[in-house]
Structure formats: structure tokens, C-alpha cells
Amino acid sequence: MWVGGAIRAFRVTAIVALSLLPAACATPHLKTTADSAPDAQQADFTPTAGNLLGANPTKLEQWLGKPGMVRLDDPAQVWQYRGQGCVVDVYLYPGSDGMAVSHAEARSQKYTGDPINPCLAVLSQSRHKAIGS
Asked: Would you say residue 13 lies in a domain?
């Protein structure tokens, strides 16, 4: 009987854990918001993962420019930026004030560890050079 009870307990635990998985994926990993970011017009401003979270599309375009690709994945939008060995995907979801960044991730063979901040710096610098030239 114990084996059957253990299997039932495992199934219940697995079902509960799997049901919580979508909620965990939707929760932002960072606690700071874009409201704490400096004015986007500052020439030396470089966005980071911390102040990217909560940014609206206008701020995102000011900081990084127009995305190279936009994927509509209702209700989300995924904006993709590429530059100098980096690919950054920014996930925007609808909120009470419109679309806002809820998650971002970066891929790079150039940077070790988590490449999000170095890649944001590269993209932001490219944006500033384009504006200044």
C-alpha cells in the first residue's frame, strides 16, 4: 500500500508544481522599474536589465532604437535587437499603462556569464552613434 500512496503523493506534488510553472514564468525576475531610470535623453545613459524592466515602448525606442524584428505573440510582443555579437529579446506585455517590458534576455558568444548588460551597452552605444553622426 505504501508504494501506491507514494505514487499518488508524487502525482499530486507534480501536478501542483506544474500548475505553478506558468505563474513563475510570468513573474518579472527584477524588482526595479524603468521609472528609476535617468532621463533617456542623456547622451551617456546606458540601460541595464534593472531599469529596462517596466519600460514602455517609447522609452525602449529612445534607449535602443527601433527593433530589427517584432514578433506578435498575443498578448505579448517580442522585440529583437541585434548588434556586434549580441542578440537581445525584449518581452512586452500589456499592463494598466499599456505595453511594458516584463522580461529581457540576451545571447552572445562574445561575453561570458549573463550578457544582458554588456549587450544593452553595445546596442545603446550604437544608437547614440547613429543619432550623433
From this structure: no
Locate the DSSP E strands across 33-85.
69-73, 76-83
How do strand 98-108 and strand 86-95 relate by DSSP bridges?
A: antiparallel
Provide the domain limits for residue 38: 31-132
What single DSSP character describes residue 29?
Answer: S
The tally of domains found in the chain comes to 1
Provide the CATH number for the domain around residue 71: 3.30.1450
The pTM of this model reads 0.66
Residue closest to 47 by CA, chosen among 81, 98, 94: 81
Strand 86-95 and strand 76-83: the pairing is antiparallel
Pairing verdict, β 76-83 and 69-73: antiparallel
Q: Is residue 24 part of a domain?
A: no
pLDDT tens per residue, range 60-98: 999 999 999 999 999 999 999 999 899 999 999 999 999
Q: How far apart are CA 106 and CA 57, in angstroms?
A: 18
pLDDT digits (tens, 9 = 90+) for 108-123: 999 989 999 999 999 9
